[in-house]
Design brief:
With 259 residues, this protein is mostly beta strands. Helices cover 2% and strands 38% of the residues. The strands form 5 sheets. Strands 7, 10, 12, 13, 14 and 16 form a 6-stranded antiparallel sheet that branches. The longest helix is centred in the last third of the chain and has 4 residues. This is MAM domain-containing protein.
């Protein structure tokens, strides 16, 4: 299925496509605001039973913005079915947040049992930390989360996306902070491939009041040979420092001549 989405402004909470056959399950999602433009999305649907497609959107309580979907196209292999499918069971409702004040989510101070309010904030030291990152790419390259079911290893990588513009691949955290002077971002990264200049990776902060801030860090070119995977990984530490306002951390990556 191909569609175009418009996710604009602070009201835009997120968009999800679900499939209902014997169960209801998500097959695609995109969170947050992408700007005042239409972005192409491709959704892969695989089912051995008659199914229905559900599109679900969430908006926030803000003055402007919203979510829209247009130009939905199904592949020629899709056919209308006269069969009636019955759900084996309804999905469990989402858990109620352990804390009502959103300002206390991801503020680096555990307020709930088992630090539940801090587990999906982008910190990979938490089991669900990786789920805190949201791909906000709008062009032909985007970030994908890789999970190894055997080793439990997780990392993000840049791959081809459905968009039609050559723009940066972008991924960001939820709103974080405020922070003190010792706040630090630590991560490993690898830039490999057949091109001599493989592209540029950078880190920026989006201040909730001041907007996008200048680059805190950047790296251009290769970190090593693709066949020497372990040696290609480098380590970086970036001082975020004092942030009085809530903020998001954002990774940008632009790889020219990717495909």
């Amino acid at each position: 299925m191909v569609m175009y989405t418009h996710q604009f402004g602070p009201r835009s909470g997120g968009l999800t496509v679900l499939v209902a056959d014997r169960l209801i399950y998500p097959v695609w999602e995109r969170g947050g605001a992408l700007g005042d433009l239409w972005v192409k999305a491709e959704v892969e649907i695989v089912s051995n039973s008659p199914f229905q497609i559900l599109i679900m959107a969430a908006i926030r309580d803000f003055d402007y913005g919203g979510i829209a979907v247009d130009s939905i196209m199904l592949s020629p292999e899709c056919r209308l079915s006269s069969e009636n499918s019955t759900l084996e069971k309804l999905p469990n409702p989402p858990k109620h947040p352990c804390i009502d004040d959103p300002e206390k989510m991801c503020d680096f101070h555990p307020d709930c049992a088992d630090a539940e309010d801090e587990t999906q904030c982008g910190d990979f030291s938490y089991a669900e930390g990786s789920s805190g990152w949201t791909d906000t790419s709008i062009g032909s390259q985007g970030w994908i989360l890789y999970k190894n079911s055997t080793t439990k290893a997780e990392y993000f990588y840049v791959a081809e996306a459905a968009g039609q513009q050559l723009t940066e691949a972008q991924t960001r955290t939820p709103l974080l902070g405020p922070t003190g002077p010792a706040c630090n971002l630590s991560f490993d990264f690898a830039l490999t491939g057949s091109l001599d200049h493989i592209g540029e990776l950078s880190v920026r902060v989006i201040d909730s009041l001041l907007g996008l801030r200048p680059k805190l860090w950047e790296y251009s070119g290769k970190t090593g040979a693709e066949e020497e995977e372990e040696a290609a990984w480098h380590h970086a530490d970036i001082l975020l420092g004092v942030r009085k306002n809530r903020f998001q951390v954002k990774f940008h990556y632009l790889l020219l001549n990717l495909f």
